[in-house]
Task: inverse folding
């Protein structure tokens, strides 16, 4: 999916903020896109699976200690995300939204769709989410995430 996003941003010459031509900003986007596969994506998917999909498939919830351990793994990478990538910036690459922000938010909405609101106790993360939503527009954000947010009602 990352390769497709990069291809589309180049092919259709999207606005520069999505995949910046400035090498330092682009390196920041690339750094996040490389890091997220084994961190936020992996841990967020584990939370989604353990809290929602596996209980549906096996007909019962996983043991609470198992779910707690998986959730702690996600919390660890969320702390890294805030400290390493967000820092005190509006967006991952600086002052404008980028592909890195879109990919990050999509991955973080999976646990939310499974009933784990990871934004609740993280004001920095919640503020960043609000900025990304505003940048893409609330209607488009809602449309893009409506399926995952309804998953918890399966």
Result:
């Amino acid at each position: 999916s990352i390769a497709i996003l990069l291809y589309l941003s180049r092919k259709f010459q999207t606005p520069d903020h999505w995949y910046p031509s400035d090498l330092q900003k682009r390196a920041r986007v690339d750094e996040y896109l490389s890091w997220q596969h084994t961190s936020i994506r992996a841990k967020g998917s584990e939370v989604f699976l353990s809290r929602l999909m596996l209980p549906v498939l096996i007909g019962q919830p996983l043991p609470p200690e198992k779910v707690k351990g998986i959730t702690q793994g996600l919390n660890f990478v969320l702390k890294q995300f805030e400290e390493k990538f967000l820092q005190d910036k509006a967006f991952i690459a600086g002052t404008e939204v980028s592909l890195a922000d879109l990919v990050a938010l999509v991955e973080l909405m999976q646990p939310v769709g499974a009933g784990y609101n990871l934004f609740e106790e993280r004001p920095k993360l919640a503020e960043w989410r609000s900025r990304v939503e505003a940048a893409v527009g609330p209607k488009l954000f809602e449309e893009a995430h409506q399926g995952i947010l309804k998953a918890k009602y399966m």
In short: The helical segments are 2-11, 23-35, 40-58, 64-86, 99-113, 123-136, 138-150. Residues 1-8+22-153 form a domain with the Glutathione S-transferase Yfyf (Class Pi); Chain A, domain 2 fold (CATH 1.20.1050.10). The chain has seven helices and no strands.
